[in-house]
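--- STAGE predict ---
source: upstream dedup step, 1 unique chain passed
mode: sequence only
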Amino acid sequence: MSVRFRSGTAVALAAAVALLASSCGDGPDASATPSASPDRPSATASSPAASSPDGKQPGPSASPSASDDRKVPAPVLVEMFVSGGFAGRKEQLRVLDDGTYTTVEKGKAGPDGTLDAPGLRSLRRALDAADFPSLPPRTINEQARDMINYVVVHDHVTVTTDQSRPVDGLDQVISLLSPHLPGRSR
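--- STAGE serialize ---
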């Protein structure tokens, strides 16, 4: 059995396949220039996307890729969420690898800033010393009321505490992060 396409249908189908192939990536932050890998071969001169309109390979003067126009945020070093207490705190602090941080208080953006070099070094040392994978995932006194809960996320490990009992390493991290919370920075 053979399938016949009209020439217009074949062209439209080829264009749709080319559009779909060019839009495939690893998500909205995927680089516009795909990297070569066993799963994703690099573009070649025979590929329509890799050649210029005249059929020649683009040279060094080719326009920059879309990813050159966007800044990629630094990976998150640590994140802390604080909630509870009598006043109903709800704060968030996110520190990036480069020391910049953002805050949120009760759903509204709070003050942002940058840790100074000694502060960032101290935080990194405390995070390393805490050894997050070995920490208990949850240390909460379920009978206590109006406790402030701290959820700290570092290197894909989440730890929750209300500081009702000491947690070696984690308490130092919370102590270093707390002055940068929006409720404390006024």
